[in-house]
Design brief:
Layout (H helix, E strand, L loop, with lengths): L2 H15 L3 H11 L6 H31 L13 H35 L43 H10 L15 H10 L2 H9 L12 H13 L30 E3 L26 H4 E3 L10 E5 L5 E5 L8 H14 L25 H9 L14 H6 L2 H8 L8 H6 L12 H4 L3 H23 L7 E2 L15 E2 H25 L3 E3 L5 E3 L22 H15 L4 H15 L22
Helix pairs in contact: 1-2, 1-6, 2-6, 2-7, 2-8, 3-4, 3-8, 4-10, 4-11, 5-11, 8-10, 16-17, 16-18, 17-19, 18-19
């Protein structure tokens, strides 16, 4: 593309997609062919989207591990006191981030499918062990307990030091170090378009440029993906290889579940819910009812998602802003990437942008992941650096008024040891491995089944892209909401019976069961049994669940081994048995199908 055509293109893209100045310059460099032709760029885009999915996959076990280390039910209702309220808040906030990371993984996966027509690789794509480095990540973190850590992000229970690593994951993107006057931009684009590749990249390297290798922030990484998509090499047709009806649908996502909500104060559980929003329960004076103190950690509008039509559970077409969206155009890709960046590290198109705090800049109802973790961390007593721990450019992006107000009355209160002494934290080990449990047959069998459940969840997620966009009869298990013609969307049925069951009904309860079992490690410490989230090293020949067409059978074998290992412990076996039954039993006593779906038929050669 010649210089004049490139200049017009980048100006059009700047207007269409709200590109930052750094992105405008990167698009100009891409248009000039510095990074290769379309085939080269498409291969790079596919690899980057897969890496983005693996970044999200790496974070989900980290957040789940810290979440499950928190005891949210030691004190309840009228008995809630300050430490339990903090523990509940921490649990709700961490799970709210984990839920949105699952959304981000789904959005990136939809883009991948739209571009390639093939499901992304999720199964066995998470880190093999922890501590783990995120793909292509140059770890950068504000000064703290583990400054500039290069050793990877650990799997650790909830504590101030782990929150530093969460900040490292969600580290905000510095979109540009210095403003370039708008009138100077055309000449700069011309100069960059004619500059040798190495010189152009060196120039951008000091200007907060987008990058997909050695990135400091996820924002930089996704920014580079935006630039490839916005380049002259791609158009809407490049994102129509995979049928939108076979992508993960908007109706499969809800921003909150029972684990993301928390009470802001003690409450009377016997009081009825308010008759209308914001109205008291009408009961005698005293503690409020549960509904009046409930906080929803994820706001309903926590993105600038587009308004578009989708089919509701009755088969009617409705319009609304849906965070989980299907992809069939470049505009869809950009909106999906914007949702990911706004919800995660915050996003600002220029330095000092006040929207950088929020994942929903319009309503400012919910903080970004970075700010959520920062507010939790400053409630620990060893949060001593406060604002001076952040680099100057980040202070410009973070709303200092918000931070100072958040600190008031909350900062420097708790320690992990104190929370553990109050039995609000389970005694989880750091970076557990299967080898740590190898001497204990019960611990090994339970942990292996847990790892298998997590891996099978990822296979089920991949399988969504192979589900035909048709309908099933309402008498199928899980088809509780039917459309106007008496059927239910096949993917909705599959999602409810597969993902909801595996994550909420089974894995959540199984990990809670595990932490009630104590295991003695090789160093003599006795700790709560915690999941190691293995990909390999367990199952047949140490290959996890093995090939996808064998995964259900191998998961069933792991369930049988868990039952056998706990057979001598009647209380434990009695708790394990119903969860194994929900996973692998073909039918329950009344003949209703109760197991997770066996998806081997969808994967005949993998």
């Amino acid at each position: 593309m010649d210089v004049d055509a490139s200049l017009k293109h980048v100006q059009d893209m700047h207007e269409a997609f709200d590109l930052s100045q750094a992105e405008v310059m990167m698009v100009a460099i891409i248009n000039a062919g510095v990074l290769g032709d379309k085939d080269t760029l498409k291969a790079r885009l596919i690899a980057d989207l897969q890496a983005a999915i693996q970044v999200e996959l790496a974070t989900i076990p980290l957040y789940l591990y810290s979440y499950y280390s928190i005891n949210r039910t030691k004190l309840q209702g009228k008995d809630l006191e300050a430490a339990q309220i903090f523990a509940n808040e921490a649990g709700g906030v961490i799970m709210s981030v984990a839920v949105e990371e699952m959304l981000h993984m789904s959005l990136s996966s939809n883009i991948y499918f739209a571009l390639t027509g093939q499901p992304p690789q999720l199964y066995q794509a998470a880190p093999q062990s922890y501590p783990a480095l995120l793909p292509h990540h140059n770890p950068v973190v504000p000064e703290g307990p583990d400054p500039q850590s290069k050793g990877g992000i650990p799997l650790r229970p909830f504590c101030s030091a782990q929150l530093w690593h969460f900040l490292q994951i969600e580290y905000p993107h510095n979109p540009f170090f210095s403003e370039i006057p708008a009138e100077a931009l055309p000449d700069l684009v011309r100069e960059l378009s004619q500059m040798p590749g190495k010189e152009a990249l060196a120039f951008l390297n000091v200007h907060g440029w987008p990058m997909d290798q050695n990135w400091n922030s996820i924002g930089q990484f996704y920014s580079f993906i935006r630039c490839i998509v916005a380049s002259s090499y791609f158009d809407d047709g490049d994102f129509q290889a995979g049928d939108p009806k076979q992508q993960i649908q908007p109706y499969n996502y809800a921003p909150n579940n029972i684990d993301t909500i928390y009470p802001k104060q003690a409450f009377d559980p016997s009081k009825p819910a308010p008759t209308a929003p914001g109205v008291g329960s009408g009961c005698p004076a005293g503690l409020p009812g549960a509904a009046e103190v409930t906080v929803y950690a994820d706001a309903a509008d926590s993105s600038d998602a587009p308004v578009r039509p989708v089919e509701d559970h009755k088969g009617h077409t409705v319009s609304g802003a849906f965070e989980l969206m299907t992809i069939s155009s470049r505009q869809d890709v950009m909106l999906a990437l914007e949702t990911i960046c706004e919800q995660g590290e915050g996003y600002s198109a220029k330095p000092g942008g006040s929207e950088a705090n929020w994942d929903d800049p319009a309503s400012q109802a919910e903080q970004s992941h970075f700010n959520k973790f920062l507010e939790l961390q400053m409630q620990f007593e060893d949060f001593s650096h406060s604002l001076e721990s952040l680099p100057p450019w980040m202070e410009e992006q973070i709303d200092l008024q918000w931070l100072s107000e958040a600190v008031q009355g909350k900062a420097n209160k708790w320690s992990a040891d104190e929370l553990k002494a109050k039995e609000l934290l389970f005694d989880y080990p750091a970076n557990p491995t299967r080898a740590d449990y190898a001497h204990d047959p019960i611990a090994t069998a339970l942990n292996d089944f847990c790892s298998g459940l997590f891996q099978y969840m990822l296979i089920l997620s991949e399988t969504i892209y192979k589900i035909e966009p048709n309908y099933v009869a309402p008498d199928q298990p899980g088809a509780d909401k039917v459309s106007k013609d008496g059927t239910v969307p096949h993917q909705k049925y599959f999602f409810n019976i597969a993902l909801h069951r595996s994550m909420i009904w089974i894995l959540d309860k199984f990990i809670a069961l595990m932490r009630g079992y104590e295991v003695t490690l090789t160093d003599g410490r006795t700790v709560a049994l915690a999941p190691s989230f293995d990909n390999l090293g367990f199952g047949p020949a140490g290959q996890g669940l093995g090939a996808r067409q064998e995964a259900f059978a191998n998961l069933a074998q792991l369930g049988a081994e868990a039952l056998l290992a706990t057979a001598g412990n009647s209380a434990l076996n009695g708790s394990v048995a119903p969860l194994v039954a929900l996973t692998i039993n073909k039918t329950s006593a009344d003949g209703e199908g109760m197991h997770l779906p066996d998806v081997s038929a969808y994967w005949p050669q993998t």
